[in-house]
Specification:
Keywords: Cytoplasm. The chain is of the alpha/beta class and 236 residues long. The chain has one domain: Copper homeostasis (CutC) domain (TIM Barrel). Helix 6 links the parallel strand 6 and strand 7. The radius of gyration is 17 Å and the shape is globular.
Length: 236
Amino acid sequence: MKLEIIATRPEDALAAERGGADRIELVTGMLEGGLTPSIGLIEAVADAVAIPVHVMVRPHSLSFRYDRAELELMRADIRAIRRTRAAGIVLGVLTPDGRVDEVALETLLGEAEHLNVTFHRAFDEAADLFAALDTLTRYPQINRILTSGGQPSALEAVPMLAKLVHASSGSGITILAGSGLKAPGLDEFIRATGVDEVHAGSAVRVEGHPLRPVMPEKVMELRHILDGIRTPGNEG
């Protein structure tokens, strides 16, 4: 079971690592759903921790549709990220009618050599989640999809997430469940969905507030729950 924690500063990343996180998603603008952090911040966080750091590539929070100038900016950001110790990027692009924007995606993936790629919660705004999954499986560079199953909270989408886990089996894409997940009920959620990666942000922060620091003990609480779970996908 893998645990990914959102960080917005080096102290967050260090606290997450101390608590047993497997990976960092590095963002700025948490209240806007995550935006691209500065190169200085990326370098500081990637140098501070030993666990992988995946960096958000999202120039604004207006939509998941980008014009040519915005895509060029994203390409430049990915090239800069590639020169740091960051292990991956997190991105998502949609067409106006809610399909994965393959032209934009291929443009961005062309800059992402040697980087892990997560398709973020733009996925949850797709018109058809299974069609979006099918499209993304055609891109070997994409390792995982961060999703709440099309709902504001992953807890509201247990049946859908279970279907997505089943549909993605053998595709090379891992379903990373995120949004609204906390320690209470996490074991039941994982057993019901079959996910083997979990993403947390506010749940591991002081008073559950997205702008407060990460607490290692809250990360550790999630880590202990995950370590005690066996799902159909990881028994043995």
